[in-house]
Predict the 3D structure of the following.
Amino acid sequence: MRPRSLQLVIAFDTTAAALAFEAAAPAAGLTGRLIPVPTAITAGCGLAWRDDPASRDAASALLAREGIAGASLYELII
Amino acid sequence: MIYLDNAATSLHRPDCVVQAVAEAMNGMGNCGRGAHAASLAAGRTIHEARSRIDRLFHGYGAQQVAFTANSTAALNIAISSLLAEGGHAIATALDHNSVLRPLYRSGAELTILPTDENGRLSLEGLEATFRPDTKLVVCTHASNVTGDLVDIGRIGAACAAHGVPFVLDASQTAGCFAIDMQAMGIDVLCFTGHKSLLGPQGTGGLCVSPRLRLSPLYVGGSGVHSFDREHPAQMPTALEAGTLNGHGIAGLAAALEWLEETGLDVIRRREQALANRFYQGVKDLPGVKCYGDFSTAERSPIVALNLGDWDSSLVSDELAQRFGILTRPGAHCAPLIHEALGTVAQGAVRFSFGYFNAEEEVDAAIRAVDTLCREEE
C-alpha cells in the first residue's frame, strides 16, 4: 500500500455532482482526482474528490460557484 | 430505399454517433459504480451529455437533467408525479398517447384543448380552463401527425401566471427547433434521443425546474448512500435508478455535439425546405388531401395525407413495395387529432423528413404519389 497522508476529501450527494465538480476543477486550479468515497465518511458507496488540504478554500469556492449543494469537506489521513 | 419516417425515428445519423456508441461499448464501464478509469469514462461522457442537453434547452443546470429510456418514460414520471394526488390537468387534442395514457391512468379530471377540423389548435380558451385544482398543463410542441406547432411560449406564460407547472413533450422538435426552458416558462421538458436529436434509440430524459420535486417510477441502485432504505432524493439520481444506457448516451452526446456544430437553424431550414418541396408537389394532385396548417413555414417537417378514400395502410404499403418509399400509416398513437381530422377509420399516410434526406428522394416520393393518384382515377 502507498504511505498515507493528510488529504482534503470532498463527498458528494450524487455521482452527477462529483462529475460536475471534476469537470470544473482544472479551471479552478485544482489538481486532485476522483476516488471511491472512503469508508471513514460513509460505508455506502460513491465518488469523492481527493486533493491537497491547502486547496480547501479554492474547492469551497468552486462548490459555491457551480451551485453544488450537499457536498461535505473532510480532512482525512488516507 | 427512401426513408421518410423520421418522425418515428431517425435512420440516417452522423457517423460520429455510430462511432461513439461502438467506442463506448469497447471501453466504457458503469457510471457511478466505482472510481476506476472505465467507470469514470462513462461518468464523464454522461456528464458531457447532461451539460449539452442543458445548454440546448437553456435548462436549470446539468444536474437537473435525468436520463430515461425515451420520452414516454420521462412523461410518465412527470405526469404521475404531478398528479399523484389527483386534481385537474390540461392537455391538447394534438397529444400523443405517451401524454394521454398517463393522464387517463392518473384519474385526474382532464380538459383537452380542441382543434378545428384541419387540426389547428386554438389557445383562445386556455385562460378559462385553469381551475384552483389544476396541477399541470402538458402538451406536445408539435403534432406528430400534422406537424403543426403549438405556441408553447404562450402556454408557459399562462402557466406562470397561474402558478401551474408546464410539462412539454418535445419529442418531435428537440434538435430541430430552439427551445428555451427559462424564457418559455417550461418546468419539465421531456425529450427522446432518437428522433431529431439523432441519437440512439433507448435514450431520452427530462429536464426539471428545481422548484419541482418529481417522484421516480423506479427505485433501486444509485451508486450512492447504499445503506439508506430510501432512494436518494437529489437530482438526477432521484430519477435514475439502475444502470444508465451509457452506450446510448455516448452516442447521444456525439449527436448533440454534431447538432451544436451544424446549427439548429441550418437543420430546421433544410428539413422544412424538404417538407415544403414535397407539399408543393403533392397538394394539388387529384384525390390528395393534406392535413394541417400549411399557411406558415414554421412547422415540423411532416406532411400527412390521404389519397381519396384509400386505406392509409394500403397506400403506405404500396409506396414501400413498389417504390421503396418508407412512410407511416394509421393513427400514429395520436387518437384525438385523428378524431378531429375525421380520419379515425382511414388513418393517414405520414411523410416525415430529416436532415439527411435528399431533394431527389423528395421528388421520387412526389412522383410515386402522382402515379398512385393517376391509378386511383
Summary: Chain B has two domains: 2-10+264-376, 15-262.
